[in-house]
UniProtKB/TrEMBL annotation:
Pfam families, sorted: CxxCxxCC
Name of the protein described by the UniProt record: YkgJ family cysteine cluster protein
InterPro entries recorded: Puta_zinc/iron-chelating_dom
Length: 177
């Protein structure tokens, strides 16, 4: 992938081509895993700074509202604080909110009963954006310090999020480990 490819997001009718990036991410799973493992073993100086810059560069060209694949396929884990905040905003008691929107998954996490996210509009905008769950605010986790601590999650996110894929590719290009 050339630097020009990294700076141009593949679009299809004003939407990010999710299938295109999913296929690329699948093809590069081993390369990405190897790169991130090296990153964990040999942490470059100023890694957090490079990660933050790379995240900013990627999100300067990626418009999440042209994709929203995370909202369509993944869904967040809800913390108790998330549940309380959103239920309060909806003027619902906690039990009613959980019964209406959530289930407990096989890992014991509270997640949506079904996908896509019930708060995702047809315009790919989140109807609860200011109070959205913490996991939604942090996704795809490409701006966090010590990125090497979440290698498995980062690789998984590349399959669903074009920005996560572009982030890893751009970071590989910059660091060339």
């Amino acid at each position: 992938m050339t630097q020009e490819d990294l700076e141009t997001v593949k679009m299809d009718k004003d939407m990010v081509d999710i299938a295109y990036y999913h296929d690329l991410a699948q093809q590069k799973q081993k390369e990405h895993a190897k790169f991130l493992a090296k990153l964990r073993q040999k942490k470059p100086k100023h890694l957090d700074k490079v990660v933050k810059e790379t995240h900013a560069e990627v999100f300067a060209v990626v418009d999440c509202t042209k994709c929203a694949n995370c909202c369509k396929d993944l869904g967040p884990d809800f913390t108790e604080a998330d549940i309380e905040r959103i239920a309060h905003a909806f003027r619902m008691n906690l039990g009613k909110f959980e019964d209406t929107y959530l289930r407990v998954d096989e890992d014991g996490d509270k997640v949506f009963q079904c996908m896509p996210c019930p708060f995702l509009g047809a315009d790919n905008l989140c109807s609860i954006y200011p109070i959205r769950p913490k996991a939604c605010r942090e996704f795809p986790h490409t701006d966090r310090k010590k990125i090497y601590q979440i290698n498995k999650l980062t690789i998984q996110n590349t399959l669903y999020c074009p920005a996560a894929y572009l982030f890893v590719e751009k970071l590989r290009h910059k660091l060339q480990l």
